[in-house]
Amino acid sequence: MKKTRPWLKTLAVGALASVLVLSGCNAGNSGSGSSDKAANLKIMWWGSDVRHEATQKALDMYTAANPKVTFAPEFTAWDGYWQKLPTLAASKTLPDIMQMDAAYIQGYVKRGLLADLSDIDLSGIVDEQVIDNIKIDGKVYGVPLSYNGQGMVYDKVALEEAGITLPTNNWTWEDFFAYAEEARTKLPKDKYPIDDLRNIWEWYQFYQTSKGLGPIFKDGTTFNLDKDTWFEFNSKYAEFQKAGIVPPADLQLTSKENDPQTDTFGTGRVMLRGASVGSATAIEALLPGGRIAVNSYPIGEAGGGWAQSTIFFSVSAASKNQAQAKEFIKWFISNAEAGKTLGTVRGIPINNDILKSIESSFTAGEQLGIDLLGVAKEKALPFYPAPAGAEDFVSTYKSEMESVMFNKTTLEQAYETLVEKGKAAEAKLK
Amino acid sequence: MTEKQSSWKNHLILIPFSLLMIYPVIWWIGASFKSQAELSLPTLWPETYMWENYTNGWSYSSQYTFAKFFANTLIMEFWSVLGGVLTAALVGYGFGRLNFRFRNFWFSVLLMTLMLPSQVTVVPQYIMYNKLGLTDSYIPLILPHFFGGGAFFVFLVVQFIRGIPRELDEAAQIDGASVYAIFFRIIAPLIKPALFTVGIFTFLWSWDDFFAQLLYLSSVEKFTVGLGLRMFIDQFEVQWGQLLAMSLLSVAPSAIIFFLAQKHFVEGIATTGLKG
Amino acid sequence: MFGKKSGSGKKFQHNTAGYLFISPWLIGFLLLTLWPILQSLYLSFTEYSLLDSPVWIGTENYSNILSDKLFVKSLIVTFTFVLFAVPIKMMFSLLVAMLLNKNVKGMSIYRTLIYFPSLIGGSIAVAALWRNMFGLEGYINHILGWFGIQGVGWIANPDTALGTLILLNTWQFGSTMVIFLAGLKQIPKDLYESASVDGAGVFRKFYSITLPMLSPVIFFNLVLGIINAFQMFTSAFVITGGGPANSTYMYVLFLYEKAFKQYQMGYASSLAWILLLIIGVFTLINFTVSKYWVHYESEGGKSN
User: Fold this and answer.
1) Is the pLDDT at A155 greater than 80, yes or no?
2) Which of C48, C55, C262 is most worth mutating to test chain A (most A CB atoms within 10 A of its CB)?
3) Is residue C56 part of a domain?
4) Boundaries of every domain in chain A
5) Fewest C-beta in 10 Å: which of B134, B162, C128, C160?
């Protein structure tokens, strides 16, 4: 897939050799002591086969360099992973090292299942800002593996053909709504300017946080759904639905993100939508051939969108091989050769040196990810996942708003239900 | 109405009905040759046939091809089916024909095991097998077919046995045959169709039991087809063409087994001329 | 469960042989199945996140469940599903089984074709398949278009999603049908022949021979059909995820999400035991009523 040109290869090998020499010196200094002990590390991650293959190669490389450390790898797809991991936790057999996601990590930290990794020295490997962003109660429980962030993608070709003013970076929510209204007048009837994401709680939260009103669960505990803002936002969408600016509810809910059959954006029904850096390759595959351009999220006085790592390696608090695990993780994100092998299988590498060394061979999808990250970073807000304990609120939000979209319930009724669930979650969180 | 006429009429009903049932599968065949981009089109057949979906899909996993996964699954299936059929026949006879103390109690317990959703027993079960050191092996997947599982099939066999006239075994009993002899000589041959049904269903359902396989098998060399198929799914992206191609292939063994076995379970007993 | 033993049965009490025959199940039950079942019962009285140890909270889960709106919603959805899916599937399966029971050339192929949808089971492919069939631009709407009818997004519309799942359930009717087929083959042919000689018509034969002779198998399919319909999970999980607007939020899906998404295994276990009670009541009614309509050859051929 990725063909490296010969001259590039020479260059890379040269760079690699020099890095190897440097890192070799490093390892000699810091690595002695704990790595003398033999260990078989159980390591687990989710992903596709490309990721599995590259990761296993990297593990082999590590064992070749450190013969005393061997691995027992295990991997599954995304959905199975989050069924298996709690089962392993229940039987007290969590692997030494496990891949973690920002949406789940809090629940594991809260129960004391993950080891504190703050003492891994990541200076010069990962930006300090990045580390600060992912700390939980001031400690690092997962070493970030890649950059992630949220921007928007649009079908540039279609918008230009229809003569619609293109979105601009750092546009406001007003600009965003104005774009939607303008585009409606110029697009064919069965194409829509934007999606109707009223049932996605995060989508509204972006609106609220960008206005400086904080996330729905402030500090992860206080229920903070701003009534006026919420009504304003959803009334706007109700208008849009009537005016045909957003797709009708049944078309909208048929859509599964990044599914080639149904994704409204991927099937050319909707012109613009939000997209995470991590999903860039998938999006590019839906509309290939450079049709897609990127733009920032709509912003308010506080900013907009987010940019933060969401994939980590964590170490089990019960692991007997924590020292070896930490050392391995550090190597995993800093070793140049490993970086080359791993490429972008976990997204855009968190280590800027490694990123630079592989940038030149990026595919269109990977480049799209870089572009998305670029626009996301500038005005990014922190990433606000739902706190562990607010799951009930999240699922109620979805179903209530779907009822609203189908006019099965009023906005007022939905609001009441949400406040009730929000308060219940708050009582649990405090 | 002559034989010929009626059979002609039968075909007239059967052909359109079969097509109606199979239509989504025809779409599936078409889609398995499509590229990711073409999948969004509502067409049945692709413009260009992606045979690569099959060839690349087959060896998608870097370490093993699907041949390995098929072999693994078939080995697991062999033991599961053997266990399922043996247990269902023996236990079904016990409950269906023999009269023993607390029979009704135990039968109620058997049925009860069917009523509790497995989602809540799966974790304690995992903890148990883990303590026994049996994870990452096929044993937790096979063992229940021999012992303790298969309540559905036991009940099925019970119902079939209760449909067999009792005069048959009573006659044999008068001739001095033991209950064991009655089972092997009289009942077992008569419930052959039911046992084939048990065998087929055991095969199909273990093939499909993804969640258990996910929990208990962790090394790739032990992966089943079901787990192999999951490798096409990433968090954001699904290799649909290859996934559809390989999952179509994954149904093939079941279809072949069904085709071969259906003769037996529908024709096993019809010739015996049994009279109630 | 088996009713009163008729006189002939009482003569033979086979305690040793009985336990010997059921021993594979009994031993397995005591050693492998009982412990997880008891555990889940215990857990239903605890707060258990899977990630840390269970904490005893008495009957709190149960009282919380009774005031949980989602519990009520999922019960309504599930009962609706059972009410429609079970009879439709049963009747359809029996009809097809009788059709496939004929002696027609190429029957093996027809049977396999018609059974094929049931082979697919709950695989991931089914989700893609079903989205294609019932999507806005899917096959169904395409056909409706010929008649000038504007279709909807069948699985994305709260008014039609559950109906679509019932249809899917009926489409995968194979296992029920196969059991009927095996049952039909067990009916001695000479019964029909002598009825023909007596001048009985098709419906008469169906009513007085097929139905009573098949009743043990019909009973089996009914009992298991109800149990399985109450536990319906896979297609709701894979295809609709319970949506839209919770219109397909099946009971076991609710339970699953509590257990593995919200990490409330204690609550989920209580839900499971409540479901067990509900299914148990239905099964008991089924067995009680069965005395009046199920005909067992082995019990002296008393009919109805």
Assistant:
1) yes
2) C262
3) no
4) 6-148+308-350, 150-305+384-429
5) B134
Q: How far is CA B52 from CA A12, A49, B242, B243, C90, in A?
A: 32, 17, 8, 12, 42
Q: Which range has the worst mean pLDDT, A41-45, A117-121, A390-394? A: A390-394
Q: Which residues contact B270 (CB under 8 A, 6 or more apart)?
A: C185, C189
Neighbouring chains to A with at least 3 Cβ pairs closer than 8 Å: B, C
Q: Are residues C23 and C161 in the same domain?
A: no
**Residue C10 pLDDT level (bands cut at 50, 70, 90):** very low
Both C252 and C127 in a single domain? yes
Contacts of B275 in chain C (CB under 8 A): 188, 190
Least confident of A281-285, B53-57, C28-32, C189-193: C189-193
Domain at A6-148+308-350: CATH code:
3.40.190.10
Count CB pairs under 8 A between chains B and C. Answer: 322
Q: Is B236 on the interface with A (CB under 8 A)?
A: yes
Q: Residue written as tokens 């077992």?
A: B188
Give the residue numbers spanning the domain of B205: 52-274
- The answer to whether A391 faces chain C, any CB pair under 8 Å, is yes
Range of the domain at C225: 69-299
pLDDT in tens, A50-99: 898 999 999 999 999 999 999 999 998 888 899 899 999 999 999 999 99
Interface of A with B (CB under 8 A): 46-49, 51-53, 56, 72, 74, 76-80, 83-84, 86-87, 90-91, 93, 257-261, 266-268, 276, 278-279, 281-282, 285-286, 288
Query: What is the CATH class of A150-305+384-429?
Result: alpha beta
- Per DSSP, the residues of C79-100 read HHHHHHHHHHHHHHHHHHHHHH
Residues of chain B in contact with residue A98, where contact means CB-CB under 8 angstroms, are none
CATH number at residue B229: 1.10.3720.10
Q: Do C18 and B90 touch (CB under 8 A)?
A: no
Question: C195 with C272, same domain?
Answer: yes
Q: What is the pTM of this model?
A: 0.89
pLDDT, tens only, C215-249: 999 999 999 999 999 999 988 888 888 989 999 99
Q: How many domains does chain B have?
A: 1
Q: Considering the domain boundaries, does residue B33 fall inside one?
A: no
Displacement of CA A227 from its chain's centroid (Å): 28
pLDDT < 50 regions, chain B: 1-3, 268-276
Domain-located, residue B227: yes
Indicate whether C287 belongs to any domain.
Answer: yes
